[in-house]
Design brief:
The complex is a heterodimer. Chain A is an all-beta fold. Chain A is built from no helices and ten strands. In chain A, 0% of the residues lie in helices and 49% in strands. Chain A is globular. Chain B is mostly beta strands. Helices cover 0% and strands 54% of the residues of chain B. The chains are: A mainly beta, B mainly beta. At the A-B interface, β4, β5, β8 and β9 of A face β5, β6 and β11 of B.
Chain lengths: 113, 111
Amino acid sequence: GAGVSQSPSNKVTEKGKDVELRCDPISGHTALYWYRQSLGQGLEFLIYFQGNSAPDKSGLPSDRFSAERTGGSVSTLTIQRTQQEDSAVYLCASSSDRVTEAFFGQGTRLTVV
Amino acid sequence: AQSVSQHNHHVILSEAASLELGCNYSYGGTVNLFWYVQYPGQHLQLLLKYFSGDPLVKGIKGFEAEFIKSKFSFNLRKPSVQWSDTAEYFCAVRSWGKLQFGAGTQVVVTP
């Protein structure tokens, strides 16, 4: 595609429910990142996929968070048993390799009520 | 631990003033350095990047940044800001593929 696409753009969920956030990276990009952006908190690294290598999960805040990337393309970030502190904008980015700049999607704004 | 530090969280300045935003990182080895900007309501966009060569890099919209290896710094500058430069600015460091961001600096330019 022309850019990184994320869906949904907005998600309101009840505390305790599971949510799935989707990211379609730029076609051919081998690297994919997930970040969380909270007000005044900057971009918190969550997870990084590079090709077929094992993902770098060092930023996932708890075992309620998981992500997968199927076929080296689309990625899904899953948050189980959502909590109010999970409310944030979740950003996805992709890049063509380990070196070049990353391109960002518009993000998914998650609100847990 | 590897980290990216931005010195200022909020900066307010008048149009035509000069802007400098500090960024320091604590990575060893080879790094790639970036500044991104997020205008209100928009997604993150690349301002400029440094991979190698001339440590003074020029980006879009009149921005430039200087890589000083000995100081582990990559400061962003613009000689004369405009109201349209109001945005949040993020420094980022890429090491072994992983891309880490600073906390961001909110810049407000007043007319």
